[in-house]
Design goal:
Layout (H helix, E strand, L loop, with lengths): L1 H21 L22 E9 L7 E11 L15 H11 L11 E2 L3 E4 L3 E11 L6 E3 L2 E6 L2 E6 L9 E7 L4 E3 L7 E2 L3 E7 L5 E5 L2 H9 L2 H25 L3 H5 L18 H37 L5 H19 L21 H28 L17 H32 L5 H9 L1 H34 L9 H24 L2 H16 L2 E3 L2 E3 L9 H16 L12 H20 L3 H5 L1 H8 L2 H25 L8 H16 L13 H8 L5 H27 L3 H9 L3 H25 L9 H25 L5 H25 L10 H36 L1
């Protein structure tokens, strides 16, 4: 008996809590005004459906399907059939769907209501959609959903028609467990609850979340997300600092004997005179710059995340912190410093100007520009009274002058941070020798003009971001207040003021999220600095023998691959909470795959002695290419002999030629004979088209970048098939900038993947180049399995991850085929087309296999895409 009483008491408390939760919005939902003639709505026939779609979705979607037959006796019934732009139509539809509800209360998305008139009634069909992305109460159509931890309470809370018995009410809860709190349901199935002829206040229920959905909500909490992002930035900064500390110029390491650089290899000569001094300055300054950025990037990102979580801070304090921080970032970058190495192609030094004078003019131009912009922003903050703004810079009403002040503040702050990012990118590119010579010369000659041009460009970007934020707010207000006059609403004015006041901080958060791209530029700059052509006797030259990057370069390449390639498809709810795990896991996976694959590479199986004797000089390489050409001709003649078209040649002669080619390989190997399946053609293909691994990497990067263009279009188009992604891209505060950033980052991902493939071309296993594409895809796929497991555990959509993996393999496969063609590019003049050259390289049967394998990948990608979008 005691237990029965306790259960009754517990049930009563749960019911009271649900009634309280569903009634939180009562104050904002008032009855329709007298001009709505609500009494005439009695006798309406109402049908309502709630659909919860949460399976394979990052954010559960709630859809309201609402139909009402209004009797003709209602004075406004005829107005429902008027034009959608007429005041009568808006008044009638507002009275029917919104009552006297505040315009900005809802965030739902809706389709235009359809109206059908009969002799006795007017039928209105209204569909609304929203997503559960937080613990806040949402209103969608006549429904109210209140997330309460592991349970979601739903109930009918229509602004109108509350005293009318609704004919049919259905709740489809998407396979989740549910309870009928009202105990008034007329029927129930595995997924749905149905009520008939009930008052709206009698319809209540709760959804019990599954373990998968609970885990997704747990990982998506702001605290875990902040911790994951903080861990990612800290890990990235530590790895970047480690890479900078380990970075040494190869010539200093060669003297001591580098791993992978056998004795007897050509040692490049160091430049002399002024070039040597500049090179030593660059060698010392670039790692130091990376260390500075490693510290600053983590500090800035963590500070912004901390400020974002401190909602109690006013806009004034945000501005007072962000403006000096942007100014300090520009000064820390020191884009006027004297640290450009002399290897920038085409650089023409100005002999008439002293370096100190040039540096002083550059510093004066930069400092005057950024201080002027910072002064404008601080003027708005400190002299807010002159603009008619409150001290916290969050006005409820503002004059044109006040809004102009908010615009100036936002643009000045955004410009400063964009200038800081540009200054750091310039410094990395300049120290790493990535700049074109005429750009560096122009900066040396006329810094004021350069600062003015770049400043106007950055101002245009800031204005575009502000224009987008304004447009998004306009569209949002049209959506949530489509039945009222927006220009007469005080809420509209408050919304505009809020957008202008929050603009700089919202977009700074977005900008900081992409500031890791500067880390990628820094890694590429350091790689280029360490491996650019040396100057010897007035001519640029590469060291001709290089199996691949040394340990320090390999770390830089791995970091580039992880940042740009492996983190691209981990876009699901809760992923940010695991960012601190993804980074080390991806790096470990990459090193394991490379370590296991290196021993099976063609070059490793031949040995260091073969590489020195047969590949150490340009003459040796030409001999190898001649042997490979001879091998292809002999195999072609063997094929013709088997077909009965051999001419005067005999089988013994062809076999003797193959034995001599085999002996040419064996004679240069120190330890035993190489595997029988390795031929001189395999060696030529494994060496690649260039003499130095850096040149192989840049060629493969260019190829993969262009091959990845269709893949980028396919991925972006697939993402936009989801309604939530469309809403975020077209109407999010940073939707269009995010869309453009995704396009750019996908292209950079393909380029980085191709760069990694080319850099490790001689270290990856496989006689055929497509095997190398497989190895890199496997290095990506091992952490991808963990991502797939998390997606499975959280019941989200794995299709983007699968599609991205297939497209990555296809892009790398195409890149490897074109790299093989580039290896024999000197023979292009002997063939009618590139396809004929491929036939010669792979032979007929080999090419058939290559084409078949490529077609299998493309068909798999097309089939997968069709299944994903249908």
């Amino acid at each position: 008996m005691v237990m029965t009483r306790r259960w009754r008491l517990l049930s009563f408390l749960v019911l009271v809590a649900c009634l309280w939760g569903c009634g939180t919005a009562e104050a904002a939902q008032r009855n329709a005004g007298a001009d709505c003639h609500s009494d005439g709505l009695r006798g309406s026939t109402v049908h309502a459906t709630l659909r919860l779609q949460q399976h394979k979705r990052a954010h559960p979607q709630v859809t309201s399907d609402f139909t009402v037959d209004v009797p003709r006796k209602w004075p406004l019934a005829t107005h429902l059939t008027f034009s959608e732009n007429s005041p009568e139509y808006r008044q009638a539809m507002r009275c029917l769907l919104r009552g006297d509800e505040a315009p900005g209360l809802r965030t739902e998305w809706h389709h235009d209501p359809t109206v059908k008139a009969t002799a006795a009634s007017v039928e209105v069909h209204y569909v609304a959609v929203d997503w559960i992305t937080s613990d806040k109460t949402i209103l969608v159509g006549p429904w109210q959903i209140v997330p309460q931890g592991k349970k979601w309470v739903f109930c009918l809370r229509p602004p109108t028609l509350r005293t009318t018995r609704w004919k049919d009410i259905e709740a489809d809860l998407g396979g989740l467990n549910f309870n009928d709190i009202s105990e008034q349901a007329s029927s129930t199935t595995e997924n749905t609850l149905v009520w008939q002829n009930q008052l709206p206040e009698q319809v209540r229920g709760e959804v019990v979340l599954s373990q998968q959905r609970t885990l997704a909500l747990f990982l998506s909490r702001s605290s875990w997300s902040t911790a994951g992002i903080a861990a990612w930035w800290v890990s990235a900064s530590i790895l970047l600092a480690l890479a900078a500390l380990r970075a040494r110029r190869p010539e200093t390491a060669t003297a001591q004997g580098t791993a992978g650089q056998p004795s007897g290899a050509a040692v490049p000569q160091r430049p002399t005179g002024q070039a040597e001094n500049s090179g030593q300055q660059g060698e010392a300054s670039l790692p130091k710059t990376l260390l500075q950025w490693a510290l600053l990037s983590a500090a800035v990102a963590l500070t912004l995340r901390l400020l974002l979580s401190q909602q109690q801070l006013s806009n004034r304090w945000h501005a007072l912190l962000c403006i000096p921080a942007g100014l300090a970032l520009v000064f820390a970058a020191r884009p006027w410093g004297r640290h450009a190495p002399p290897a920038a192609p085409g650089a023409v030094p100005d002999e008439s100007a002293r370096p100190e004078d040039v540096q002083r003019r550059q510093a004066r131009a930069v400092v005057s520009a950024v201080c002027s912009v910072a002064g404008i922003g601080l003027l708005v903050v400190l002299a807010h009274d002159a603009f008619g703004l409150p001290e916290d810079l969050q006005p409820k009403t503002a004059t044109a002058l006040g809004r102009a002040g908010l615009v100036l503040l936002g643009l000045a702050t955004m410009w400063l941070w964009l200038a800081a990012m540009a200054a750091w990118a310039w410094r990395f590119a300049r120290e790493g020798g990535l700049l074109r010579g005429r750009w560096a010369a122009r900066w040396e000659r006329d810094p004021a003009q350069c600062v003015a041009a770049v400043g106007c460009l950055l101002a245009g970007v800031a204005v575009a971001l502000l224009a987008w934020a304004w447009w998004v707010n306009e569209q949002r207000w049209l959506r949530i207040s489509w039945l009222v006059e927006r220009n007469d609403s005080a809420d509209y004015s408050k919304s505009v003021n809020n957008v202008l006041a929050k603009f700089f901080f919202t977009d700074l958060t977005w900008l900081s999220a992409y500031s890791w791209v500067l880390t990628g530029i820094a890694l590429l700059a350091l790689l280029h600095f360490r491996n650019r052509p040396r100057r010897a006797h007035g001519r640029r030259r590469y060291e001709r023998f290089s199996l691949g990057p040394d340990k320090s370069d390999l770390l830089l390449i791995v970091l580039m691959f992880v940042f740009f390639v492996q983190l691209r498809a981990t876009n699901f709810v809760g992923a940010s909470a695991l960012y601190g795990v993804w980074l080390p896991l991806n790096i470990v996976s990459f090193y394991i795959v490379i370590a296991m694959g290196r021993r099976w590479s063609v070059m490793s199986q031949l040995g260091d002695r073969f590489c020195v004797q047969r590949l150490g000089t340009e003459k040796h390489r030409r001999e190898l290419m001649a042997k490979a050409h001879e091998y292809r001709n002999v195999n072609h003649q063997m094929y013709l002999l088997n077909q009965g078209h051999a001419g005067a040649v005999t089988c013994e002669q062809l076999e003797d030629q193959l034995r001599r080619l085999r002996q040419w390989l064996v004679a240069a190997c120190a330890r035993g004979n190489p595997p029988e399946q390795i031929s001189v053609l395999d060696v030529a293909l494994a060496w690649g088209p260039e003499g130095h691994w850096w040149s192989n990497a840049t060629r493969a990067a260019r190829l993969a970048f262009w091959f990845g263009t269709p893949a980028t279009a396919l991925l972006v188009y697939f993402q936009l098939q989801d309604f939530y992604s469309q809403e975020q891209a077209l109407y999010g505060p940073t939707g269009l900038p995010d869309f453009i950033a995704n396009l750019i980052l996908y292209q950079l991902a393909w380029g980085a993947a191709g760069f990694t493939l080319g850099a490790l071309w001689r270290l990856l296993p496989g006689r055929r180049s497509q095997a190398r594409a497989w190895v890199l895809t496997i290095a990506y796929g091992i952490p991808g399995l963990m991502a797939a497991a998390v997606i499975k555990l959280t019941d989200e959509d794995p299709r983007q991850l699968i599609l991205y993996t297939v497209l990555l393999l296809s892009v790398l496969t195409l890149t490897s085929i074109w790299m093989d063609m580039a290896t024999f590019r000197e023979e292009r003049q002997y063939w009618a087309s590139p396809f004929a050259l491929l036939v010669s390289i792979y032979q007929l049967r080999g090419l058939s296999g290559q084409i078949a394998w490529l077609l299998v990948q493309l068909v798999a990608a097309a089939t997968l895409y069709h299944n994903l979008t249908h």
